[in-house]
Structure formats: structure tokens, C-alpha cells
């Protein structure tokens, strides 16, 4: 396919873009049955306390084992699932699986002998507006016997920009029950910092771009000031600060000095199977 680009010049259509469009179409068609066929699975990435290095929990990250394309990352299919509405049942499945997993870790630990491992689950904006969110979450917690304070739901900053009270209501209900709400990818949106007071969040997840700017030691003084300011503001509002994408020891050290509470990244562990997380937590607790 070629399209006229004015005058007598012709521009060839980008074959890679075409291939991407075809795959996107194919993936969208395959999505609805993928859940029934059990093609999704979850990897867990540890959340580590920056002060003492202990594993405090994990973030659940969904993957799709596609019969033809192999393992697909969420960036490939979450937008499609949001577009088609499959994100609601898929998100519910991820929540149930992850909370069940948290219960299994707890049982394997002999109760909370190692300290409770908490579970973080991502919520898409479509799930926020779905009327079943609070009810589904309550039922999953009851069925699994996991207490609300072991669960943290991550919502991106951009999903809450300009959020009105109707959108915040389910999050407020969940927060009142004791579920933590984290503001994911913080610093990438354009939210008014003063707006934070209005949101029922208890955790800020500082975006990976901030961590990347901590590559050099010492880091750029302006970047240091910005992170320092965000941490001070967060702590003054009683919010904990988690940092994403920590890839080096220098970054971890820098962010620890800046007062961040928890970290996540390849420096500690890549996302992996649930047994791996349990091993990491065990090694960590027994030295
Ligand atoms: P996110 O919630 O911000 O998750 C963090 C992403 O950073 C993950 O990508 C993780 O694998 C990656 N990451 C962790 N440590 C490092 C590091 O040290 N360096 C680098 N370069 N990357 C690191 P992943 O697993 O591909 O997930 C991408 C996004 O997809 C997530 O971003 C989240 O927004 C979304 N997602 C994942 N699972 C779910 C889900 O169950 N539901 C919804 N709605 N969204 C999900
Ligand atoms: Mg997240
Ligand atoms: Mg994030
Ligand atoms: Mg992110």
C-alpha cells in the first residue's frame, strides 16, 4: 500500500507499523478467550525496605503467554484490554490470584513469622469506574482470609488527575477498610501537589525517571532537590515513598539517603514466580 504524499511523490506505508497493526488486531481478537484458556500468569517483584533491606512484599505484574507470540508484557495488551472492557474481568482475576498468593506466603511463613508480606496490585482507570470494585475486593479478601492492610492497590497519577468525588468514592471506601492506595508513576503527570491532600492515598510510587536521574553519585543537584522536596512533602502528609526501577546500588544508596522508604527494581530482583519471592523473603529473614 502506498499513499500519495502531495505532488508526484509517493510514500511507502511503514511495513513495521502495518505488522504492528495486524498483531494488535490479532491480539484484540484473541483476548476474550485468553482468560478462559488460562493464558495469563502473574510475576511478583519484591518491595524492599531501604533502611534494612528486608523484603516487605511484592507487586503483582500480569503477563500473557500467547500461543503464537510467546510471553507478552502488559504494555502490549493492557491498553487493548482496557479498550475492549476485558480489563474488568482480567483485573478481578489478577486481584484474586495475587491475594490468594499473599495468603499462601503467609501460610508458608507459619502465620506472619517473617512479618506480613504485603501484595500490591495495579488497577486500571476502567476498574475504578466499574461499580463492582469495592464489593469484589471485599469478597476476595473474605474468601482468602487476607486482612485489608496486607493489600495495596496501585492507581496511576494520571488516572486521578481531575478526579471528581464520584471517582474517588470507591477508593475512599477501600482506604477506610484499611486497604492502602498507592499513587503509581508519581511525577509523570501534571497533578497539583496540593491536590494530594484530597486523594485517599497512603503511598507515593516515585516514577522510574527519578531513579534514572540518580545514576551518578552524587546525582545532579537539581534532581536531588526535587526528590528531596517530594519526599518531605509526602512524609509531611503521612505518605510512604516507594521508588521504582532501582537498577544499581548507587541509586539505592542515594534514594535511601534522600529518605525514601521502600524500593523496587532489578538491583534487588526482576519480577519472577511466586516461589522465588518466598525464597528471597526467607533468606532475608534467616540471614
Ligand atoms: P508499573 O505498575 O509502573 O510497574 C513497574 C514496571 O517496571 C514493570 O513493568 C516492571 O517489570 C518494571 N521494572 C521493575 N523494576 C525495573 C527496573 O529496575 N528497571 C526497569 N527498566 N524496569 C523495571 P511491566 O511488568 O512490563 O509492567 C508495565 C506496566 O503494566 C505496569 O507499570 C502497570 O502499569 C501495568 N500492569 C502490569 N500488571 C498489571 C495489571 O495486573 N493490571 C493493570 N491494570 N496494569 C498492569
Ligand atoms: Mg504499579
Ligand atoms: Mg509504577
Ligand atoms: Mg512505572
UniProtKB/TrEMBL annotation:
Residues 24-285 form the EAL domain. The chain holds residues 427 to 713 of 713 of the full protein. This is EAL domain-containing protein.
